[in-house]
């Protein structure tokens, strides 16, 4: 090649590292959005069940949606769902223990159905006292973890989520944002931590499945390149 010849500048290609980081960032955002809307949908449906049975009571001036629920409940639940769904696979990677138990969408859908059933039971099934209902829901929630998760990290995160969510709910009820009928655990129902535990496990399973799908897509792109 002669010294005077110059190469025509071609389109610059991103290196594999930059491409991977960009792809993961976009996929992370997409997973967060999907988890947010799943949480919003479940919050609308499940909160409607609680309100219809007069388990939760909102002040009349707070009611502001066609689902007869406070407007801030779905966004808060959606945000929490996104955080939980992204946190589970992140903890799995950090611990070096990828979750491979029942990793298919049919199992995730069954987990969601069981979670909805547990929440439905808390509002519809009548027990002689709240202790019996709480023990029953606790057994069902642990059964949900054992059937669809069985990981130590999943159980630990579920317990932590139940504790934090119950604490926040106690503070909200204490400040008069809304209230529970017949509270028997300070300001809330004693079975509420069971619902939060089951919800954490459910959203964790959805987040793990979405993360696994992302890994498959990235692996296929890398193989094609």
From TrEMBL:
Highest rank taxon of the organism: Eukaryota
UniProt-listed GO biological process terms: cellular response to insulin stimulus; cholesterol biosynthetic process; SREBP signaling pathway; SREBP-SCAP complex retention in endoplasmic reticulum
Location(s), subcellular: Endoplasmic reticulum membrane
A Pfam short name: INSIG
Transmembrane segment boundaries: 28-49, 69-88, 131-148, 155-174, 186-206
Transmembrane found in the keyword field: yes
Keywords of the record: Cholesterol metabolism, Endoplasmic reticulum, Lipid metabolism, Lipid-binding, Membrane, Steroid metabolism, Sterol metabolism, Transmembrane, Transmembrane helix
Membrane topology according to the record: Multi-pass membrane protein
GO molecular function: lipid binding
Primary location class: endoplasmic reticulum
GO CC annotations on file: SREBP-SCAP-Insig complex
Secretion signal span: none
Self-association and partners: Interacts with SCAP; interaction is direct and only takes place in the presence of sterols; it prevents interaction between SCAP and the coat protein complex II (COPII). Associates with the SCAP-SREBP complex (composed of SCAP and SREBF1/SREBP1 or SREBF2/SREBP2); association is mediated via its interaction with SCAP and only takes place in the presence of sterols. Interacts with RNF139. Interacts with RNF145.
Family to which the UniProt record says this protein belongs: Belongs to the INSIG family.
Physiological role: Mediates feedback control of cholesterol synthesis.
Protein name: Insulin-induced gene protein
Organism: Diceros bicornis minor
